[in-house]
Amino acid sequence: MATVELRFSALPEHVRTARLVAAAVARRAGVDESVLDEVRLAVGEACSRAVGLHQRGIKGGAVRVALTDQEKRFVIEVGDGAGALSELAEPSDDDSGDSSDDTLGLAVITGLVEDLEVGRDDAGGLIRMSWPVQVG
């Protein structure tokens, strides 16, 4: 089992890099070519969601992406590093709709990934996604 880990400052310009790395590692792990666009899009949405949490005023922490090549699955975990504050769900009166963007992002990920878990770890929110790999 091989794992590639990325950590980046919560800036939108780093999301593209995470998408490109995820697609390259997925291809090398044996994920079917027809699914690589889904991998790329799902990672982009998960990372954008994490960056969005930081842009709403959460200080510190970094976005974490772990790409793991298991025997029959390719697993990607995206952590927001926002601690307990990553559960900001209720928009304030002056909110510009970021919470609805968050909900839309999760809906897009749900449509792209059959094996999806949204939860938490010690550092904050965590989205875990996986795809089958071609064996042989």
Automatic annotation (TrEMBL):
Span of domain Histidine kinase/HSP90-like ATPase? 8-131
| CDD domains, per the entry | HATPase_RsbW-like
- Keyword Protein transport present in the record's keywords: the answer is no
* One Pfam family of this chain: HATPase_c_2
Q: InterPro entries this protein is in?
A: Anti-sigma-factor_SerPK, HATPase_C_sf, HATPase_dom
- Which UniProt keywords are listed? ATP-binding, Kinase, Nucleotide-binding, Serine/threonine-protein kinase, Transferase
For the keyword Ribosomal protein, the answer is no
GO molecular function term, any single one: ATP binding
- Highest taxon listed in the record's lineage: Bacteria
- The molecule here is called ATP-binding protein
> Which source organism does the UniProt entry give?
Kitasatospora nipponensis
